[in-house]
Amino acid sequence: GDSESVNAALLEARRILDPPVATSADAVMTIEGEVTRKIDVWKMLCVCTTVIDVEAHTSECANRVGRVVEEAITNAVRHGGASSVEINVVGATGSVRVTVTDDGSGPARGNPGLGSAILDHATEGNWALEAGPIGAVLTATVSNN
């Protein structure tokens, strides 16, 4: 309720939405590296399996894929109580398709929050969250330009 807390929350949201992108040849981000970094945060709380089939991609694409994966795992564990998450990342012409399936309680219908804003920003609005046979299925398309 106080202005300092609101300001701190806004700064944190800005940090999440606009993280720095590697620009030097020595610090090129890879999709594999970003996905691994995101999984490492959650590996004590859930089992994550990955299939990544992407050849060439930009650092910005890797950054955005990482944000999608991070948000998907966060929601699966925090909101769905998932113990297992499967992440598939497949390259296509000019884009990368990310599918994240979990064994949690499935998507809840509620008002969009910060997570939706993160996904909108990372995918330019190209994402959907649906109930799967068990849990939730997030599909997202990230530009690779």
Give the topology, please.
Blueprint: H1 3-17, H2 31-42, E1 47-53, H3 59-78, E2 84-92, E3 95-102, H4 114-123, E4 127-131, E5 136-143
Parallel strand pairs: 1-2
Antiparallel strand pairs: 2-3, 3-5, 4-5
What does this structure look like?
39% of the residues lie in helices and 26% in strands. The chain is of the alpha+beta class. A five-stranded mixed beta sheet has the order 1-2-3-5-4, covered by helices on one side. Helix 2 runs parallel beside helix 3 and helix 3 runs antiparallel to helix 4 (114-123). It starts with a helix and ends with a strand. The model is unreliable at 22-26 (pLDDT under 50).
Could you provide a short overview of the structure?
By secondary structure, the chain is α+β, with helices and mostly antiparallel strands. Helices cover 39% and strands 26% of the residues.
Please name the defining characteristics of this protein.
39% helix; alpha+beta; globular; 26% strand; 5-stranded mixed beta sheet; 145 residues
Helix-strand topology string: HHEHEEHEE
Number of strands: 5
Strand content: 25-35%
The parts where pLDDT drops under 50 for at least 5 residues are 22-26
Q: Quick check: average pLDDT?
A: 87
- Overall outline: globular
Spatial strand arrangement across the major sheet: 1-2-3-5-4
Coarse structural class: alpha+beta
Q: Rounded to an integer, what's the Rg over CA atoms?
A: 15 Å
Q: Kindly, what is the distance between the CA atoms of the first and last residues, rounded to a whole number of angstroms? A: 41 Å
**Helical content class:** 25-40%
Largest sheet: 5 strands, mixed
Number of helices: 4
